[in-house]
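Annotators were shown the component list below and the corresponding predicted structure, then asked to write short factual statements about the assembly.
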Amino acid sequence: MARTEAQAAAAALAAFHRKAAARTVLTHAVLLAACLLCVYPLLRMISVSLRPGDRLMSTDLSLLPAGASLTSYLRVAKETNFLLWLWNSLVITLVTSFIGVSLAATGGYAFSRFKFPGSKLGLTLLLGTQMIPAGMLLLPLFLMIMRLGLINTYLGMIVAYSVTSLPFSVWILKGYYDTVPRSLEEAALVDGTSRFGAFYRIVLPLSTPALSIAFLFNFTQAWNEYLVARVVLCDAQKYTWTLGLFELQGQFITQWGMFAAGSLLVTVPVLCVFLYSSKWLISGLTLGGVKG
Amino acid sequence: MTTRGRLSLLLAAGLCGLAACRQAPPGDPDRRIVVWEHDDASVAPYIDSVLAAFCKLPGNEGVSIVRTHYHTEDMRQQFQTASIAGNPPDLLLSASDAAGIYAISGFIQPVDGLFDLSRYNPAVVAAITQDGKTWGVPVTNGNHLMLFYNKRLAPRPPRTTDELFAFCSGRAPKLGLGHCLAFHLGEPYWLVPWLGAFGGWPMAGRVPTLDTSAMRQAVEFMLELKRRGFIPGECDYNGMDALFKESKVAFIINGDWAISTYERQLGAALGVAMIPKLSRTGRWPVPMVSGKYFMLSSRLQGRKLALVKRLVEFYTDEENQVGQARALKRLPALARANSARTIQDDPNLRASLDQILVGKPLPMATELRAVWDAMRPLFGKVLSGQMGVDEAVRRMQADAETKIREMKE
Amino acid sequence: MISSLLQVARFVALLALAVAALEGYLHYHFTCYGRRWFVPASAAAAAALACAAALLFTGRTAGQVLCSVLSAAAVEAVAALVFSHVVRGRHGLPVMLLAPGLIGLGLLIAYPLAFEVYLAFHDLKLTTIMVWSRTGYIPFVGFKHFVKVFTASPLASVTFWQLLGRTLWWTFINVFFHVTGGFGLAMLLNSVRRFRGIYRTLLVIPWAMPQVVAILAMRGEFHYDYGFVNIMLGRLAGHLPWLAGWGLGPVQWLGRHALLTCTIINVWLGIPFMMVVILGGLQSISQSYYDAAAIDGASAWQRLRLITLPLIRPVLAPAVTLGAVWTFNNINVIYLVTGQAGGSEDADILVSALYKAAFTFYRYSYSAALALVIFAVLFVCSFLWLRFSKGSESVYG
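Structure shown to annotators:
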């Protein structure tokens, strides 16, 4: 009796394990397929960059094309001002990100901890700024930057970029601050620090995850931006990589090999920054929302 | 640190920054020329070399020229915006299609009194003339479509469409070619030569003339090419380019801007010829001809204008025009330069010249843009079988008229 | 290299100066408002500053200097009165914290927006640009452009209402697939034990790549002759002729199905963002909930419906709202896939039609009016959505 019961239990357990194993295999298969879908266009760009002759298209689906060579990469590095563009982009993007995060950190704190008249309206307006159709503001933006004398300067770019990522960053940080219990600051206030000191010394260090996300968001937005850079910069020495790389696109003729090589070289640092902070990304994006 | 302490630190830092802000005064603005161009990136070194040569001429000490490159669409918007803001470049080196817009907006000045335009080819000057005024100085002649062929696949180019069809039905399958002719089906610019061969033209003066029997015949001709498998079902610029570079097609119709690229890729196997004569009407296809022009900002005057005038004359003198043909494989605008050995000895350039002789000037009118925008989607719909020829042609005319009216009201 | 660093350092210092001046001004107004000398002293200081500025920077005539001095004193007197009687030092810290950001936003968004409103009520187009750039005058036309927005259309082939409908449909379909796709992937990712990092890394690539490059790469895959999709379809049709008989074969993606192609590309682009958001939400749900449910005998579907969905809702709501807004205004995908040479108008949504009207035909005033209408539509829609979805609780806290 006991043996058949044990056998039945063992059989049931084995069946359960088989089902679980099948489910795991299926899960991995689906995830693998999704990964392939996500990565494939990137791989195709790699083959364009390796293909000789500036040919964007080919019926040859192999990832390593016939006659593959690294000439496009070498040409991009030598014939164009690629490193200069990267440097310009890096400088502008880093400064923008730091300024943007600072403004968002203080702004988010204000919205989170204080109930002042217009705070709810302010948040709605911040959301509203995301709704303005892009490109509509280009003409007046150009006129204004012209009148302020900021044409062709880093300052114009930095100010424009810091401000456009502000709404999203403020939302993220406000949400995060909402989950940080006020008791910590109250304890600090009792000990005699100022309000700002409580923010600076207690809350800010705790919010590194959300700050990283805001930084990452600012970084990606500024790094990939084209329209505003096109309007503000006209000195080839100051070009960011978006302007520089799109110089390779003519009206009809495009040097696709170099364009693809340049695009990939530009994507790699972004991916690295992204992947390094992906831990923060996961935990930070949520801590603002989930209560309790 | 107290709030006040922090604020004073910020203040001190800011004052340092302000102090460090004093920059060197800029050079004499009258000796500094700003040029904008939208040519391909491979042309830039040539342009820079000529500009540098100008600066080295005696009497040009202290002259500096700044060249900025823009994408075609960007340059149009940026020039418009910069002119509105009062800070336009001095010279534009551009094709003629946007000249109409600049002229109406008052941002460029007519050049009739400033230059001797009889030195240049009449057709290329005609493409930048409107209402009796000429709005630019031609630099290159062309920007036109012609037939490119692969000598390894087709040793001799077809002179008529009947010969072309014979090749496509006969030789091409034997060579294993899926299609024998390819061109950019998405842009109406490629339809115009065939429209001309049927006796039509997109505009008469400033009025669109799209609803004609010639247009219907031209569109049906395209459908016939597609039905018989001579051209691919869907083909854009990059597709046509790839097919030719991979030797998967014997003939393509492309522009003079591509001559130097294909010569680099195919070497001696590249052949250039006129687009074959249409057998059923006996007419040569009529590509639109214009070129690249120097356009002068309307704010130029006095000493600056004189300096810019000297630059333009230097750029388009005979020596530089012949040098340009050698370097860029583009035909010169200066009439005398066409007889230079460099051009006459090059079979590809000679074929290009022959093609220009049967072409017609590209209209400068702003209405042309509305015509392109009306033709483009409807032509696409006909090709993909979503609409009938008759309905499409009628709607092209109606759409073009609507867009022109909206632009003006 | 060094010179650009120095330049940037100079600019940062300038910004610091501006922020310090602003904060100092506000600090003074929030702390000293009670003193008796507050109003006159502030007015006098403003007058002195205006005088110095006018003399130093522009060297205007005496009349202009006097005018600017008096106006500065008057404005500052009013401000000081407001601070001393209405504000009375309350909400000092939040205002000081928000001031730099809000002023920057005001400068960069409010001024252009006001300019667009101005344009929408006047008539700036190709034939009036010359007069405007020389004299600054454009004719006032009132609501003419707004009427035209609703009655005429920026495109020849569809009306405004059809465009609006197409845009709403585009937004809905995209957000639906973003959320379901992201949710599915997040659930799968949450349940595997090994390789999770690698999967997460690879799946995030469409979001991390510069959008332009990603869109160009994907567009290439839908090319008729050279795209991966058609090549595969062609090969499949070759191997399975009976399917070819049913119409399987290369498809004219960009020619006949432009909007579908754009949708597929945008879905591919947007799923990683949703996946990451939802995955974070899933990971923060404590396991104890599931254990309790298992003890109570809940099925997988019940666990999903009653535990998972409600608990990720506060995370999902802002993301979906933002995602919908971004999708509605997404001009990049449509423009890059179809807007350039050889493109069709079938895929145009409101913003891409707007862009074409403004920059192809120079109908600046018309497009300004259209932009304001689009903005209003979006604002109303999201306001209603936030109201009725109760997601606003997690947003406004």
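Statements collected:
1. Chain C has a mean pLDDT of 81.
2. The first helix of chain C runs from residue 2 to 31.
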